[in-house]
Write a structure and sequence with these properties.
The complex is a heterodimer of chains A (about 90) and B (about 400).
Chain A (H helix, E strand, L loop, with lengths): L5 E2 L16 E5 L9 H5 L5 E2 L7 E2 L9 H5 L5 E5 L6
Antiparallel strand pairs in A: 2-5, 3-4
Chain B lengths: L1 E5 H12 L3 E4 L6 H13 L5 E4 L3 H13 L4 E5 L1 H16 L5 E6 L13 H5 L6 E4 L3 H16 L7 E6 L7 E5 L3 H7 L16 E2 L8 H30 L8 E4 L6 E5 L3 H14 L4 E6 L1 E3 L3 H8 L4 E6 L9 H10 L8 E6 L9 H10 L8 E2 L14
Parallel strand pairs in B: 2-3, 2-4, 4-5, 5-7, 6-7, 11-12, 11-14, 14-15, 15-16
Antiparallel strand pairs in B: 1-8, 6-13, 10-12
Classes of the chains: A alpha+beta (about 90), B alpha/beta (about 400).
Chain lengths: ~90, ~400
Amino acid sequence: MFGPLTVKPLESKGDKTGSWRTQVRPYYLHKDCIACKMCLLICPEGCVSGKEKNAFSVDYTFCKGCGVCADICPKKDIVMKPEEGEQK
Amino acid sequence: MKEFVEGSHAIAQIVQTCQPGVISAYPITPQTHIVEDLAQMVSSGELKSQFVNVESEHSAASVVLGGSAAGVRVYTATSSQGLFYMQEVVFNIAGMRLPVVMTCANRAISAPINIWNDQQDSISLRDAGWIQIYAEDNQEAVDFHLLAYRLAEDKRVMLPVMVCMDGFILTHGMETVDIPEQEKVNKFLPAYKPLYKLDPAEPISMGLLADPDYYMETRFAIQETMKESIGYLSEISAEFKAVFGRDYKDMLVEEYQTKDAEKVIVAMGSVCGTIKEAVDEQRAKGKKVGLLRIISFRPFPYARIYEALKHVPRIAVLDKAVSLGAYAPIAVEMKAAFYGKKNSPKVISSFVAGLGGRDITLESVEEIFRRLTAKEVNSDFIDLKPELLKEEYGK
C-alpha cells in the first residue's frame, strides 16, 4: 500500500498556503513601480503576477504574508498592512 | 561455489553479484571489511558501480537515498554509531519508499565506547520503517542479501531492508559459504525498475512537505505494507529455494525442537548457534527444551510465533539489547504476542545477555534454562560481574 509519495510541478497548488497568513498582507501601491519583477522572482509561493509597470498583483489564496516582496522592492511600492479582521 | 571465507568478504561478493549502480559507505568497525572489499572491486573494474566516498554516515545514507531516487539499485553498510549518525536519513529512505539494502554489522552503542557485538544499534531503529532480518550464520547473511533486494524492490513492498549480522562473530568469522553464481542471481534478481525516479525530462518531487492533510496516510501505508510483507517473505523464500536449493521456510522464524518442548528460548542472530548446541545437550539428557529463532524482527510475526509457542509452558526471551527503563525489546513483543490469547505460556521470562561483546557461552544458555522457573523474571542480566558494581557515585 502506498500513501502520497511524489508531486509533479504545480501540483502543490493544492496546498492553499494563504490560510497560513495571520497578521499582515502585502499591498501594491501602484505608484512608483518600475516593473523590475524582483517581487515576482523572490516570492517563495510564486503567487505574484504581472508584466507592466504598476500592474503587479498577489494571489492571496497562496500568499503567506512573509513580506519579502515588500522588503526587496527598490521603490518601496509594496507595503505590509495588518489583516483587516478577516480570517483567511 | 563453496569457499572458506571471512563473513565480510562473502557479503562483498554477494553484493557484487547484485550489481548495485551506486555504493556509498563510511568505514566503521566491524563493517569496514565489507566496504573495503567493494571499493577494491570497483577500483579494479570487477564491479561496474559508482563508489561514492563520503565524509560521514549521514552523507553515505544521503548518497544512496539520492541514487535510489534516481532509479538505480544501491547498497550501503554500517554499524553502531554510524547507523545512529544515519538515523535521520534512515527514516527518510523508508518514508520515500526507496528499496535501499543495508548491511548492519551489529555492534554495541557508546558510551562507554565498545566496538564489540550486541544488537542495540539496529534494534534502536526498529521504528524506522525498514524491514529487519537477522542472520544466524554467514551462509544466511549472504543469502539474505539476495532475498532483501527481491523483497525491497517488489512493487507491492518498496521498503528498505536492513540485513543484520552480528559484528565480529559473523563479519570476521571464517566459514564455508556457498556463494551463489552470477547466472543464478540474475535468474532470481532481475534488473531493478523503479516505480518513480528523478528525471529532468519528467520532473517530480519526492519526500517534500506533507501537511496534516497528507502525512498520516504515508505512515498508514507503510504499516499496512509491513503486515503484508509477512506473506511476501515466505513467497520470495520459496522462489529462492527453487533457484538455490536452500530453504528458509517462511523467513519469519525457525523452530528448533519446539514441538514437545517444555522450555523454549527465543533469540535472534548468531547466538542461536550456541543455543542449538545447548538444546542438543539438554535433549540428550532427556530434557524437553527448544529454541525459537526470530529471523524477521520487522515486520514482527506475532501470529506465527503464537502458533509456534502457544502450547509451551515456559519461554525465556534472550535479548542482546536493552530498552533502559523498560522491558527488553524482544521480550516486549513476545508478551504482546500472547496477551489476551486463549492459550499462552504460563511464564514469559526475559533475559539480557552478551551486551558489548560479552561471550554468551553454553554455560550462559544453561544458566538461562536454570533461571527459567515458575517465577517470571524481567530483564534478568546473565553473566554479570557484581564486583564491578557500586552503589555510590564516584567511589
